[in-house]
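Researcher: I'd like a structural prediction for the single chain below. Treat it as a standalone chain; there are no partners to consider.
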Amino acid sequence: MEFFRLVRRCRWLVVIASILVTVVLGLQVRHLRINADLTSYLPKTDPAVKTLEHVAETFGGNFLAVMAIEAHDLFTPGGIQAIHDLTTRLQLIDGVNYVTSLTNILDLKKTPEGLEIGKLVSEEDLPLSEEACEALRTYVLSKKRYAGRIVAAEGKVSLIIVAVHKDADKEKVIDEIEKTLSQTEFAAKAHLAGLPFQLREISRYIINDLKVLSPLVGIIIFLSLLLSFRHLRGVIIPLTAVIMSALWTLGIMSLLRVPLTIISDAIPVLLLAIGSAYSIHVINRFEEGGLESKEAGLAHVAASVFLAAVTTIAGFMSFVFGSYLTAIREFGVFASLGVLVSLILSVTFVPAWLFISQEKKRISQPPQSLSFRSKPGFVIRLQNSSLKFLRHGKFTLGVFCLIILVAFGGISRIKRHSNMLDYFEPQSEIRQSEAFLESRGVGSIPVNILVQGDICNPQVLRRMKELEAFLELDPLMHHPVSIADYLAEMNDLMGEGETIPDTREKVNNLLFLLEGQEGLDQLLTPDKTEAVIQAMTPSLDMGQMKSLVDRVESWLREHPVEAAKFSFSGSPLVYIHLDRSLLSSQVVSLGLALVLIYFCVWLLIRSLRGAFLGMIPIGFTLILIFGLMGYARIPLDIATVLVGSVSIGIGIDYSLHWLNRFRLEVALTHGQENLTAARSPASKDSPSGQVVSPNEAKEAQLLAAVERTLRSAGRAVFINMVTVALGFLVLVFANLIPLRRFGLLVAVTMLASGTGALSLLPSVIVLTGARWLKRRR
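Model: Treating it as a single chain, here is the predicted structure.
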């Protein structure tokens, strides 16, 4: 209570200081970066990530932008000239490692003078006649290394592959690529595919969601609060507080150079929805009045608000200790920070503003328990419904048990998913481009087999060729290529057959002829100790990824070679590790959240049994939400993995507020009972002359305390439940599909946990007699 007296004395200072901090941190939000790369969400110590990073650093070909240039006929003087010019301009973009296209790919030819090594199309001798272009078409389509890999559809589609440097500003590079494409005068259509274009599109979605969804959530909360409180003060104060908390959190993220991700994109909406809850309870208690002072009322509600915030933070912090993914850990840290900021503002800024507004216009004091007439009709109907459930406790338990049994049937149907392409709508341009490439037998996702050891050893090179032959038979692998292909082709042109030379000396001689050629460093290191087999796959679902990786790794185990080590590398393996971590993150973070929150509930009521009862609505909600995911075929992905712990952290607030007020009502009833007993002679008879047993009297008193709790704290719980649920429902309008699922699931969670707190929890308490309260009297 002393704290709120201090807030009242320093009310103007608190408000001004809060506004100044908001301005300073809000200005930092414009510098916030975005990271949409799923492969970066795994720890750097993960084996798949380490191998991927090593391949990217050594060969520079992991982050590929694939452009399929489609025209009626590309093998015309204008078409070849356009591809050559486009290739040249793309190579000049800062951040591009290399460009591979029809006009600069390495070619080997046998001429009357001997072996010719150079580009497929010479810059000094571009085909400028129809005959020369037709000859080039025939030559390209006759070579397995070009047909399908660089040219498809009988010369109507040509691929240009741009490797982006791993440390480059990828969004800027992709923007430059698109700008360069737009300047091409040749009449052709460009289909843009690959991870860089996917990530750029996701980044745009995140920015758009922040601009559109955050104001929309604000409008929803505004309308919900206006319908609930019926005056602007009850709307403007909590809405201002939550906007401030979101700006503080995003500003701190920007200062610490922590980017927004596919997951943390939800933080602003999350804070707008959650943060309003604390202010709602503070304002509700401030206006409820009674015999106690405003400071005393705020002190009482602050206890439950504090514990509600602590439980929410515990739910989010479970990600920090229980998740393998760095992006989920970051979400846990900054979501917790945002909730802490919301808590601080709700017990400082909000009361300070309330005290200031009280000075200007005296607030009338309603009775301690609000009458139904002072509330909106929908609140009255809800409370009447809650009281009906309360008076039919066994029926209520039966209904909830039936729902739980049905929900259990859906839990086993939950699938895991980590395919980034499915984050987009089927009709989106990026998915249409990927589908176009796949229909032409071309992939956009790079896969590499890293070979470390004695690359000049003919046995190692032969094993590389054998592996390529195996990969070519796989329907999910497209066009594998390695240094072994060039050596075998050179050996064939030298008249010894298309095989790997049988001696190290011959291998070294052929490699000597290749030295200095553009593109050789993409396949072989200068010291000849590392090489890579490059291949492409289409975007695959998780089952296909696992099957592909298992087939390749099984082959590698069955065909070892002493002189070298073969390792699978690429996005599919990273996504598999990501998928495995989703399940472990779900189990560990959920377990931690339950333990931490149980402890927080115990701190409030100091009863092991009572704390267990307080967790019942959350248990019901978790079973319901996971069952819904199974029945609705909503997969466990990078966003929905958060739902369980978020649901626990936020949903427990309703039970906490309800239990805290219930304890107060029981204490008041007990005090009034003692006062009445002291003033009047003991009697077991009721005023109507009927004999009432002690047990019946206690049951009636307990029922009365529960009803008063529903009429007071139940109002704030209902407003909170509706406001938060509507806030999260706004996410169904997000661009990213996982974010839509997340918003829908959390909204259902809020409604389920709120309903459980207003009907299931009171019914259980009445049926059990609340015996755990005896220890607190």
